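Page 37, continued from 36.
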């Protein structure tokens, strides 16, 4: 079947529903009813001759076929975005920066702060690429290609600047803590769903898992491993905010939600898992950045440093343990 014969509205509805594994969330984003989303996805399933979601009384979850289709659609959108970026580079003379960053980091930390850069410095045409692919940074005439990566250095063919070290801690909705009349302890996690992120590293390293945290907290033999896995931190966080479980997060991913009160740390500043991973800004190993790009790099490093100071300002000797 040729892709152009598939109903594009149905593909769009599926893509939105797949990101949050929720017809209701997709309906809100598309400004339609959940019933309309359900009908469009059903139409797509009938055209393909396969089921894409496992439907339950309490919601829907992608099945293996659905996960593969969602991945393929995301790849297609990345190619479209790359084509649009190339067209803009050909059409504009203004300094151009293509910045690649992990999808959840871009959504939860970077995007909310870019408006501040536009308001204070500006003068730079920024194209964002939500990707974890290990592309090589480069200066490109009046523009540049930079990357923010989550992993473990050193990074080949790049100069790196540390943005954040990695510390992981559980987060959940405040309603979960309301069930207790005492401070939560690690063993209490046996009564809750643990939300896991199936993060895939192109460096061949593993994201510190719930099992690592549970073992370090001394309850690895008393708490079942995670029952729900997601491809992005942002997806797991949506479920945590909805009160459907507890996830492991770090300051860049969770701090804004913690400050707004939609998430809390059930153990406070206790039981923090220090991992060997970090968020790093990658630039070309040599050469001079265009002035507008250099201003952006300085702004990003200053913004990360200020955020890191705030994130740790109220820490009082938390109980740390190391992932490796």
């Amino acid at each position: 079947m040729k892709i152009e014969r598939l109903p594009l509205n149905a593909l769009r509805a599926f893509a939105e529903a797949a990101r949050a594994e929720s017809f209701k969330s997709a309906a809100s984003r598309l400004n339609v009813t959940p019933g309309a989303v359900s009908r469009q996805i059903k139409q797509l399933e009938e055209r393909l001759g396969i089921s894409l979601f496992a439907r339950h009384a309490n919601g829907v979850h992608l099945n293996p076929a659905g996960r593969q289709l969602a991945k393929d659609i995301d790849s297609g959108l990345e190619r479209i975005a790359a084509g649009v970026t190339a067209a803009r580079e050909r059409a504009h003379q203004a300094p151009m920066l293509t910045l690649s960053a992990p999808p959840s980091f871009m959504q939860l930390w970077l995007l909310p702060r870019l408006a501040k850069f536009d308001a204070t410095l500006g003068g730079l045409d920024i194209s964002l690429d939500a990707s974890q692919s290990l592309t090589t940074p480069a200066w490109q005439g009046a523009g540049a290609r930079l990357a923010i990566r989550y992993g473990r250095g050193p990074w080949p063919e790049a100069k790196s600047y540390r943005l954040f070290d990695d510390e992981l801690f559980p987060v959940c909705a405040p309603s979960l803590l309301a069930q207790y009349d005492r401070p939560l302890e690690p063993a209490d996690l046996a009564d809750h769903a643990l939300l896991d992120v199936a993060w895939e590293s192109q460096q061949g390293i593993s994201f510190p898992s719930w099992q690592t945290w549970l073992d370090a907290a001394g309850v690895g033999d008393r708490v079942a491993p995670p029952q729900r896995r997601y491809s992005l931190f942002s997806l797991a966080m949506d479920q945590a905010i909805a009160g459907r479980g507890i996830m492991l997060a770090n300051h860049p991913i969770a701090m804004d939600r913690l400050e707004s009160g939609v998430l809390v740390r059930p153990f406070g500043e206790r039981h923090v898992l220090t991992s060997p991973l970090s968020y790093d800004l990658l630039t070309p190993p040599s050469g001079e950045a265009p002035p507008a790009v250099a201003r952006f790099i300085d702004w990003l490093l200053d913004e990360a440093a200020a955020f890191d100071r705030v994130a740790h300002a109220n820490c009082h000797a938390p109980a740390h343990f190391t992932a490796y």
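Residues 3-71 form a domain with the Arc Repressor Mutant, subunit A fold (CATH 1.10.10.10). Flag for discussion at group meeting. The first helix runs from residue 8 to 20.
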